Amino acid sequence: MTENRKTYSTARSFRSKSLLAKGLLSAAPLAGAFGLFIIAAWIGLNRGSVPAHIKTTTYTVKAGDTEWSIAERFDDTDNTQAVVHWIEQHNRISGDLQPGQILTVPVGR
After folding, report:
1. So what's the pLDDT on residue 60?
2. How far is residue 1's CA from residue 50's CA, in Å, rounded to a whole number?
3. Which H/E stretch holds residue 24?
4. CB atoms within 10 A of CB 107
5. pLDDT value of position 4
6. Predicted local confidence at residue 20, as pLDDT
7. Are 67 and 88 contacting, i.e. CB atoms less than 8 angstroms apart?
8. CATH among 3.40.50.720, 3.10.350.10, 2.40.50.100, 3.40.50.1950 for 56-106
9. What is the CB neighbour count within 10 angstroms for residue 39?
10. What are the two backbone dihedrals, phi and then psi, of residue 48, each rounded to the nearest 5 degrees?
11. What is the pTM of this model?
12. Where are the domains positioned within the chain?
């Protein structure tokens, strides 16, 4: 009778560990997917967003305009390089500006 209890106890212990392992394995992909969702949502919400205290306007690019000239025209800070970076990031500029292109630019930060 003692041997039967040991066998039952060992089998029960094995089943418990197996269920625990299965639970962890099925939770891991869900946790990973949730983490990726949070990261994607954060990037999506922050990409192109403008803080409430920054006023913006739209500007249509004319021939000869550069990011630098536009930044100097609309922004009155002493950090034109930061404004140029803001314009490039928020308008997803990767090359030269084209006449007729519409940009969002910060105004008088």
Report:
1. 96
2. 75
3. helix 2-46
4. 13
5. 55
6. 54
7. yes
8. 3.10.350.10
9. 10
10. 80, 0
11. 0.51
12. 1-47, 56-106
Find the helix or strand (DSSP H, E) in which 66 lies: none
How much is the pLDDT for 87?
92
User: Which pLDDT score, from 0 to 100, does residue 48 have?
Assistant: 44
Question: Alpha-carbon distance 7 to 58, whole Å?
Answer: 77
User: Would you say 91 and 104 are in contact if contact means Cβ atoms under 8 Å apart?
Assistant: yes
Residues of the chain with pLDDT under 50: 47-50
Structure tokens, 34: 């949730």
Q: Which helix (H) or strand (E) element contains residue 56?
A: strand 56-60
By C-alpha distance, which of 49, 53, 106 is closest to 82? 106
> DSSP assignment, residue 5?
H
Q: Which residues contact 33 (CB under 8 A, 6 or more apart)?
A: none
Tokens of 41: 């949502």
Q: What is the pLDDT of residue 103?
A: 95
